[in-house]
UniProtKB/TrEMBL annotation:
The lineage of its organism: Bacteria, Pseudomonadati, Pseudomonadota, Alphaproteobacteria, Hyphomicrobiales. It comes from Hoeflea algicola. Keywords: Membrane, Transmembrane, Transmembrane helix. The chain crosses the membrane at residues 21-44, 50-75, 109-125. This is Uncharacterized protein.
Length: 130
């Protein structure tokens, strides 16, 4: 087993453990939510009747689901914004590294291109003054 396959195997095990943990946490959150909604339905049912208790629990579940969807949408937008920022930073870094390696490899061409750009900038500056 080489280093890469050992790393990949360890990473796969970690992902499986994390998935099992998240499934367990999700199941426990679902059970807790069901118990709380049931308790809310019983509390309302004691005062206003069974139908009102069940409908109010259903309404609360819908409101909580809508709130969860809003939070998820906000977090996704934030993650996409962060990803765009990371990609643009990576692209800029890659561009600088690529340009510097090209300049290192082709010094003569870079010098001539620099002189040509300087002459072009001087011509543009001179024509703006007129």
């Amino acid at each position: 087993m080489n280093l890469v396959s050992g790393f990949a195997t360890g990473k796969a095990r970690q992902i499986r453990r994390d998935a099992m943990l998240m499934a367990f946490v999700g199941l426990m959150a679902w059970l807790a939510s069901a118990a709380l909604l049931g308790a809310f339905a019983v509390w309302i049912a004691e005062t206003y009747g069974l139908i009102a208790g069940l409908l109010s629990a259903a309404g609360l579940a819908i409101l909580l689901a809508a709130f969860a969807l809003i939070v998820r949408a906000v977090l996704r937008m934030r993650a996409r914004r962060q990803q765009r920022h990371t990609l643009s930073s990576s692209a800029a870094t890659l561009g600088v590294v690529t340009a510097s390696s090209l300049v290192t490899r082709h010094k003569g061409v870079a010098i001539v291109a620099g002189l040509a750009l300087g002459a072009l900038a001087a011509y543009a500056a001179r024509s703006d003054d007129d």
